[in-house]
Specification:
The chain has about 300 residues and is an alpha/beta fold. The chain has 3 domains: about 70 residues, Winged helix-like DNA-binding domain superfamily/Winged helix DNA-binding domain (Arc Repressor Mutant, subunit A); about 110 residues, 3-Layer(aba) Sandwich (D-Maltodextrin-Binding Protein, domain 2); about 100 residues, Periplasmic binding protein-like II (D-Maltodextrin-Binding Protein, domain 2). The protein has 11 helices and 13 strands. It has a 6-stranded mixed β-sheet, sandwiched between helices. A 5-stranded mixed β-sheet has the order 4-3-5-13-6, sandwiched between helices. Strands 1-2 form a two-stranded antiparallel sheet. The longest helix is centred in the N-terminal third of the chain and has 29 residues. The chain is globular, with a radius of gyration of 23 Å.
Amino acid sequence: MRQLALLVAAADSKSLRAAAEAVHVSQPAATKMLREAESTLGVQVFHRDRRGLVATPAGESIIGYARITVADLRRLHEALGEIQSGASGHIAIGSVLAPEPVQIARAIARFTAARPGVTLSLQVDTSDALVRRLLAAELDAVIARQMTRRESPELEFRELAQERLVVVAGPGTTFGAKRWTAGELNAFSWVLLPEGTPVRRALESAFLQRKVSPPQSIVETNSMFTVVTLLQNSNMISAVSERTAEHFASKGELVILQSNLHFQLEPYGIFRRRARPVTPATEAFLEVVREEMKRA
């Protein structure tokens, strides 16, 4: 198991010396462990170039499995600790850009108050990026949108809610209360999630349904803070979830524009890996999330 941990650390740091420090062995011992691992596996895991250690094609596959095994052992250790102490451990959750910002915040507040000994890490990104990290065992569960393409058979999905997109702008703009057409909105500069994400696909589909080309003047970001700041300081517009828009509009930070666009967005929910049990703390947090979503 220490050999597997060494392989993961070496892949991350690209340095055998740093990997040795990470697994608490000397560099000569780490060199010996790497040679023994390669001998057992019958392939070369790394080669060296000017950047340091670089995984071979076979090594990439081995390291992927090593990450999952090491992560599963960490979860086993934490689960045993929870059983013994009742409320300890660490959970790593991924979420898209706050489909329900208030409800997720309430869930975190409730959970941490009930289990102060549990460290909760929340990573915010796009659905595609979060699902990749979930499959790599870097996250315990993910709150993300269901992709239209066929999901990985390694994943299970439990729907939380449907979601609708709306067009938003900064509060200082002079767009007024008119109803905007797709052709008029096409002329604006947009701030959007990266190409290929569910929100971006829904926006492009809404324009095409109106027989209008999707916007071409686009700034891409997966940071909601950047979206809000750009809209507040320009005449750019964006498309965000209705609940997110309502949250910022209630604080006077965004305004919701009326339009003839109809956004069909995939539902969002909880992704977990099949046949990979989560820790009791993770299960408890997901249950709190489900309860808060029902209250929305």
